[in-house]
Amino acid sequence: MKAVFLDRDGVINALVYHQDAGVIDAPFTRSQFKLLPRVPEAIRLLNDLGLRIAIVSNQPGIAKGHLKPEMLKSFERTMLSRIRAAGGRIDRVYYCLHHPAAKVAKLRQRCRCRKPEIGLLEQAAADLHVSLDECYMIGDGINDLLAGSRAGCRTIFVGRWKCEICRFTEAQHVRAASVASDLWEAAQFIRTEMTETRQPASSPSCRSAQA
Ligand SMILES: [Mg+2]
Ligand SMILES: [Zn+2]
């Protein structure tokens, strides 16, 4: 495998409970943007495995009027610098800013980049000069698993809602290669899988049957 695509909200940074609206969503303000535990270390581990890293993230918050583009950029700077400080590196960052019901007219569209569409993943693979079947897609949402699966990536689900989410995706014949409680655990899974496949295939593992 050559690259890992990462969802942002719920994988890199914590989701936020917006009390006024009564919803759980992406952060809208600087103080709401908090990296999840062990994220920089997980990125560094993936770097050490020789994998390129791209963020592929739906960010409809600007379209919906929740935040300004400068705020999204500020989150990105925080994310990249915190990860860099721990010795990790993110190679590319891609957002879909669109939403079909956007308040901001120029972002109101049905696009090919909003996951579960695969436009962001295709762009990332092209820019990193890798093919999609050499990539992992890691996310905490159904749309991450669907996009990853449609693109031909190996998918890893991050979260604790295992059964519920899997029930939805399995109805669409999408099954994650692994379920991890956080990005660090997902990175450990990738390390194990890559170490196993590098060795001569003396003992067939049950994982290869799922592929
Ligand atoms: Mg997410
Ligand atoms: Zn889009």
Describe this structure as you would to a colleague.
With 211 residues, the protein is an alpha/beta fold. Helix content is 37%, strand content 17%. It contains seven helices and eight strands. α5 (162-171) links the parallel β7 (154-158) and β8. It is globular and about 50 Å long. The two termini are 13 Å apart. The structure holds magnesium ion and zinc ion (ZN).
User: Which structural class fits the helix and strand makeup?
Assistant: alpha/beta
Which percent range fits the helix content? 25-40%
Largest sheet composition: 6 strands, parallel
Strand neighbour order, sheet with most strands:
5-4-1-6-7-8
The proportion of strand residues reads 15-25%
Bound ligand species: magnesium ion, zinc ion
Number of helices: 7
Query: Can you tell me the residue ranges where pLDDT is under 50 for at least 5 consecutive residues?
Result: 201-211
Spatial extent as radius of gyration: 17 Å
Q: What value does the average pLDDT take? A: 91
The counted number of beta strands is 8
Provide the fold topology.
Blueprint: E1 3-6, E2 16-18, E3 23-25, H1 39-48, E4 52-58, H2 69-85, E5 92-96, H3 119-128, E6 135-139, H4 142-151, E7 154-158, H5 162-171, E8 178-180, H6 183-198, H7 206-210
Parallel strand pairs: 1-4, 1-6, 4-5, 6-7, 7-8
Antiparallel strand pairs: 2-3
Helix pairs in contact: 1-2, 1-6
Bound molecules: magnesium ion (MG) and zinc ion.
Zinc ion binds next to loops.
